[in-house]
User: Fold 15670_t:CDS:1 from Racocetra fulgida.
Amino acid sequence: MHEGDMICQDTKYDDFDILRETLQELIKLIRFYQMDRDAFIPDVWEYVNILPNDLVKDVLRCYLDSNAKPLYQQFLIRLGNFKIDSVSINKEIAQLLTKWIDKKSRNDKIAGFQYNFNLLFRSGLDGLSSQTFHRKCDNKGATIVVARIQNSNLLIGGYNPLDWIGKKVWKQTTDSFIFVIDPNELKTAIISRVNHNYSGFAIYCDHNEGPSFGEGPDLQVQNNSTICRVNPKTYPKFLNMDSHYLTILDYEVFQVVDSITGLSIQGRV
Assistant:
């Protein structure tokens, strides 16, 4: 190799280093995992030298296995930058729900938010019709339901890792849960995961009912009503009350999506 060629090579590498530093923050905004693999090679490979090596390896791994979960952690939403459109939950509650979705304990540490919670439905704006709930929330994959209880600080809700599509249909899963949270005392939060012996009755879907968890029903928002039925059966260790009915102020439903890919996490966790 001639000396002139070596100088050109050094200049080329220097240019890549400068470009990498310049675009570092912008690279985090690119949805690499949503790119079609047929487009990745011709459109991105030319610039592979400015991308983190671990990112490239992880993207290629996901292309080879369509069921693979992205593992590259640098694109997670930082705790301080997380935002959510909600009248009921804040960043700290969303962080707790994220841990529960990943089957972690309340005390486990997380580097950032792996999921975004996208508002689909708010009864205060959309009304209490179950048909409206299904129109806005069906075909959206995994969702979190959160209701505010009247005359109380408590929040009550559940996680459906599947979807709400169906007419008088029971759906089986071992990943769903229901919960009670006091926003002022997160350490007292109660989570009740589905009893595996009753997992065939984890989620109930019908256009004449709002969100419904368990055979009890353990937690169900009724159609055109502020009444929420609570009768623990499929989800043990839940609320122990004299009455099986609660009055709610309103409820919200959030689609749970991967913060890296922007895609629903349905059936993945």
User: Anything to note?
Assistant: Residues 79-258 form one domain. DSSP finds six helices and eleven strands in the chain. The first strand starts at residue 115 and ends at 122.
